[in-house]
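So, can you check what follows?
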Amino acid sequence: MNFSELFKLSSQLCKFSPDGKYLASCVQYRLVVRDVETLQILQLYTCLDQIQHVEWSADSRFILCAMYKRGLVQVWSLEQPEWHCKIDEGSAGLVASCWSPDGRHILNTTEFHLLLLVGISFSRDGRYLALAERRDCKDYVSVFVCSDWQLLRHFDTDTQDLAGIEWAPNGCVLAAWDTCLEYKILLYSLDGRLLSAYCAYEWSLGIKSVAWSPSSQFLAVGSYDGKVRVLNHVTWKVITEFGHPATIGDPKIVVYKEAEKSPRRALGRPACPPPRAAESRYEIASVPVSLQTVKPAADRANPRIGVGALAFSPDNYFLATRNDNVPNAVWIWDIKKLRLFVVLEQLSPVRAFQWDPQQPRLALCTGGGKVYVWSPAGCVSVQVPGEGDFQVLSLCWHVNGDSLALLSKDHFCLCFLETEAGVRTAFGQPDNCV
């Protein structure tokens, strides 16, 4: 791996353009657009206030900056730097702003409608928009055709308090799930027909996370009981349940354990100079392995229990999960064989993980000075170089999968990865740590 120098950043606002040519980052009220290849500044825009949200248009020709505190959205053009647009919501306020798939329309959510609007979801092909809202204590979904914004369907949902909606990648099915107090997930067709309703249990906290597989064949539902239930697209029945036990006893499961390497020092004397960060590497642990768990506070809202993060690999082979009361571990499941494949246990709680868009390669961070990458060929722990204490709080992949943006509180850098030619051929046969 190679790393760029550190660049200033605010609020972790850093995004690659969809075409992969540009990198946008925000420093307070300034928007900086760089060339991905050279990291040279191409454009520098000045907004009217501190930027709180930034988003590229689908064709990478425009970029919007939202300033929620001021109720403002400013739009900039890369092709015509002198052109710009300002949208002022005034006294209505602003809580969200996003592009439509055609990159020529912007959808703003104002404070006036905050209690009514539950969520929006565009189909992957950009043809349809699903809008969930609440009227007179009842939940509804409206489906619009994005070409002319005409209403296609409007129907009520059998939910107590709708929490979220998401289209399947093929745009044929819309998933809607209820508040965490009521375990219910509903599957609707494009014309509003209820295809299926699923409830795993009652009288306990329910759904915490939802993820579609890229092929639309599977819907993974993460729950507060620490299990992931995978529904199939034919019958919409559960084909398997993935639990997250605190002890791994199956010898077929590879457990990569991050181990700290203490710096060498003379007896009774501290290392001089003191190390900036402790070195670490992955070791393959011998089963049974007991994972670190935390006991959630029973008297607080949003307890740290249950499956809080789900993500399928781009080839549908793997599902990565994090159980919030086992915060240091990432679980990687083999979807073809419907079994646990690998567990990565870190020294610190996992803050974020994300799949390479092009191949089954998972990057993760724990809020420290390292970035971790796993593939079926093995896994690696790499210290981010540079002066100061650079803590990786979040990360995002370039569309080509050849680089990562690593984000800290006040800075970011790019991590360049070598192409792993053996990833696909090594599938299912993990080697020792790399």
Remarks:
- The mean pLDDT is 90.
- The radius of gyration is 23 Å.
- The longest strand covers residues 128-135.
